[in-house]
Amino acid sequence: MTGLWQRARLVERRPETATAVTLVFRPENWPGHLAGQHADIRLTADDGYTAVRSYSMAAPVRDGLVEFTVQRVNDGEVSTYLCDDLPVGADVELKGPIGGWFIWRETETRPVLLVAGGSGIVPLQAMIRQRRESGSDVPFRLIYSVRTPADIIYRDELGDAADGVETTILYTRTTPAGSGRPPARISLADLKEHGWTPGFDPACFICGPTGFVETAARALVAMGHDSHRIKTERFG
């Protein structure tokens, strides 16, 4: 159920990278959401001009709070304002949750493969956090492609052994010292090495820029994964 527009107050800002920030809002009456869903954020200027953008929720609801992680887009009027200018204590309007297909429920038992490109990590991190908070022991594997080490969102959480999530980070521009893989875009070989084989019949979630999503989805199908188990969400 999408619901109606409701006012939400910004109560916390957390920088994630030089270009991404997590925004924590307290809505008036949030109905709850599932990991992988998104919501619309509406901004209204003093002159009445409005702008609406959709953003994925970054975590389960906690104490009535809703989190979004926003990546600043060059010349993006909404993302730039949210990342740089919206002060704690300010109000926006939210409508959601939206989406019932690109979701993971804690009652599911199938192994999960998460494939993220850039800020496409956001809804997938919501799934990881939901898994952790629910106490689920479903096997998760995350393959996360970023340009450079400085572009890793949720750096302090990824790879936490306590999570039980096998995490692989790939770099497309610059690699950290000691990396055995040269910088390159995600490939069939990466998915074969770090993902699940088709025999495990995993649920696959891919999120990122359109080209990234199409490449990863084609590679999984080429590996023999059931296309009905591959769910995608793209932007750009």
Automatic annotation (TrEMBL):
Protein origin, superkingdom: Bacteria
Cross-referenced InterPro entries: Cbr1-like_FAD-bd_dom (IPR008333), FAD-bd_FR_type (IPR017927), Flavoprot_Pyr_Nucl_cyt_Rdtase (IPR001709), FNR_nucleotide-bd (IPR039261), MRET (IPR050415), OxRdtase_FAD/NAD-bd (IPR001433), Riboflavin_synthase-like_b-brl (IPR017938)
Presence of keyword DNA-binding: no
A Pfam family hit: NAD_binding_1
Molecular function as annotated in GO: 2 iron, 2 sulfur cluster binding; oxidoreductase activity
Keywords linked to the UniProt accession: 2Fe-2S, Iron, Iron-sulfur, Metal-binding
Cofactor: FAD
Domain annotation FAD-binding FR-type: ranges: 3-104
Keyword Phosphoprotein: no
Gene3D superfamilies per UniProt: Nucleotide-binding domain of ferredoxin-NADP reductase (FNR) module, Translation factors
Protein name in the entry: Ferredoxin-NADP reductase
Species: Glycomyces artemisiae
Organism taxonomic ancestry: Bacteria, Bacillati, Actinomycetota, Actinomycetes, Glycomycetales
